[in-house]
């Protein structure tokens, strides 16, 4: 039976029956301090937990967070704490999945490695990494010459023209693809017979690609646009059509999709559209209200 609950996913996952879920599809917090709910670490001199005078003064620091900078041991621990946080729920994720089931995790580029290690250490097979190629992304790199101009240093402003500080335009997001191992002694084909899980639906991917781009590439690069209707309910809202592609890739109708960090419920909406059962958890009451409205 489909359900969506308000509360802490790490507790609520314990209410999910063992080996009852056919797919976990989740856009988890990335631990890069994108928003309050994305602060996983205890470092009080960093990003949104910041107490430094510069952070107190500048609203810009607060709204976008401070990048990991490695100035102190506490900074360096941020990614280890992220691994520990993922380890808190990874074992339960493995438990609730049926053998041969997939698990797709949207994880930030900077912390994905820690999430991969946590899920591998819990017993998952790390199967592949899919790239979601977006049509647009916020680009915040700063021109070095501008900084020198502000300092009145014309010589260096000229010398560093064309150089920037920051990252390249982030036009892809990694989607980590894990699988729960199938039982020892059998084959993957046996698993498909026993649990209806373990393969992927190439035909459905071809169909989606033909609709989206007119091409049938069937690769691990998914080009999916974000529509107007995919914006405005959550700061990291995903495209419904992207979630539908992933759900159709590894599940059949009536099977159950779980999203333990479901934001405004995009995974659940996609699952419902495709006649799948869904289970979702979200701790923020405002986002939870939006999920109920959308469903
Ligand atoms: C990256 S967002 C998901 C956004 C989603 N893809 C969408 O389209 O709306 C992650 C969500 O996890 C929620 N969250 C973080 N920690 C949680 C926890 N321990 N239990 C339940 N929800 C949590 C946050 O409030 C946030 O809405």
Examine the coordinates and then state which fold CATH places here, giving the name of the CATH topology of the largest domain: Rossmann fold
CATH architecture assignment of the largest domain = 3-Layer(aba) Sandwich
Gross morphology: globular
Q: Calculate Rg over CA atoms.
A: 21 Å
Distance between the termini: 14 Å
Q: Element order, helices and strands?
A: EHEHHHEHEEHHEEHHEHEHEH
Please give the domain count.
2
The CATH superfamily of the largest domain is identified as Vaccinia Virus protein VP39
- Taken as a percent bin, the fraction of beta residues is 15-25%
Largest pleated sheet: 8 strands, mixed
What would you say this structure looks like, in words?
With 295 residues, the protein is α/β, with parallel strands linked by helices. The protein folds into 2 domains: 3-43 and 70-134 and 171-294, 3-Layer(aba) Sandwich (Rossmann fold); 135-170, no CATH class. It has 12 helices and 10 strands. It has helices spanning 9-12, 53-57, 59-64, 73-96, 112-122, 144-150, 154-159, 188-195, 202-213, 240-250, 266-273, 285-294, and strands at residues 3-6, 21-27, 97-106, 125-133, 142-143, 164-165, 172-179, 221-223, 256-259, 277-282. The strands form 2 sheets. The protein has an 8-stranded mixed beta sheet. Strands 5-6 form a two-stranded antiparallel sheet. Helix 4 packs across helix 5 (112-122) and helix 10 packs across helix 11 (266-273). The radius of gyration is 21 Å and the shape is globular. The mean pLDDT is 89. S-adenosylmethionine binds next to helix 1 and strand 10. S-adenosylmethionine (SAM) is lined by residues 8-10, 27, 29, 37, 234, 236-238, 261, 263-264, 266, 281-284, 287.
């Amino acid at each position: 039976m489909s359900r969506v609950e308000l509360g802490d996913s790490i507790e609520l996952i314990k209410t999910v029956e063992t080996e009852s879920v056919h797919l976990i599809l989740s856009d988890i917090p990335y631990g890069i301090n994108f928003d309050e709910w994305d602060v996983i670490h205890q470092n009080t001199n960093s990003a949104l937990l910041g107490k430094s005078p510069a952070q107190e003064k500048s609203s810009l620091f607060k709204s976008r967070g401070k990048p990991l900078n490695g100035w102190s041991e506490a900074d360096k621990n941020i990614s280890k704490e992220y691994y520990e946080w993922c380890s808190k729920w990874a074992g339960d994720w493995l438990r609730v999945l049926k053998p041969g089931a997939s698990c797709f995790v949207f994880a930030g580029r900077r912390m994905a490695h820690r999430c991969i290690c946590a899920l591998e250490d819990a017993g998952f097979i790390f199967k592949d990494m899919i790239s979601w190629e977006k049509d647009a992304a916020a680009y915040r790199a700063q021109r070095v010459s501008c900084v020198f101009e502000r300092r009145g240093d014309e010589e260096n402003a000229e010398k560093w023209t064309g150089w920037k500080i920051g990252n390249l335009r982030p036009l892809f997001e990694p989607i980590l693809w894990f699988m729960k191992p199938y039982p020892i002694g059998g084959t993957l084909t046996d698993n498909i017979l026993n649990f209806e899980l373990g393969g992927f639906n190439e035909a459905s991917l071809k169909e989606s690609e033909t609709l989206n781009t007119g091409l049938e590439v069937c690769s691990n690069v998914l080009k999916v646009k974000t529509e107007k209707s995919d914006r405005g309910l959550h700061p990291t809202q995903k495209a419904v059509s992207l979630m539908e592609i992933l759900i159709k890739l590894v599940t059949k109708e009536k099977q159950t999709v779980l999203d333990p960090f479901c934001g405004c419920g995009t995974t659940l909406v996609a699952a419902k559209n495709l006649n799948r059962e869904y289970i979702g958890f979200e701790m923020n009451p405002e986002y939870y209200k939006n999920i109920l409205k959308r469903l």
